[in-house]
Amino acid sequence: MYTPSHFKIDDRDTLHAFMERHSFATLVTHDGQIPHATHLPFLLNPTQNSHGSLLTHMARANPQWQHLDKEVLVIFTGPHAYISPTWYTTQPAVPTWNYTAVHAYGTPRIITQHDRFAQMLHDLVELHESGRPTPWHGELPPEFRDALMKGIVGIEIEITRLEGKFKLSQNRPQDAASVISMLQNSTNQTDRDTARMMQETL
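Above: the chain sequence. Below: its structure as tokens.
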């Protein structure tokens, strides 16, 4: 990912927090002829090796899982917003786009152990049900659960490299306050989320 020094994020804890907050990401692979991409929910295990690992699953009918024999890329994206040059105090200026992204590269493998795969699915449910007024705890008859599991494939990706890019007006510090103000007053929730990320980062 092309990342000028102004926008580069190296801190592992910051990158992990971003990945956990924006955990529905895109798995990109290549079968030797064409690229493939699938949008999937991911679980981060931050304690495995220096960069952590990612757990996910996809439909067995999806052919992408059959070529997980080389390095893969998982793209996490966060808030983004169009930035108008009219918001800048310094002129001349042109439009741009503020955005946040983390790229995780790694070595994939299929999860073959039944109990480990079932635990991963349980952990994914617990993560997204926690905090709800009436959470569902994934309690299913074992036969029913196991039959459904035959239709999906569990995947673990050992992260070998992380790249973070938060392009949030760091290169125009004199204009950042004005940009934040305009985004905060937007009716678009994504604009307001971008303003929050700017405040956290700058």
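The chain has a mean pLDDT of 95.
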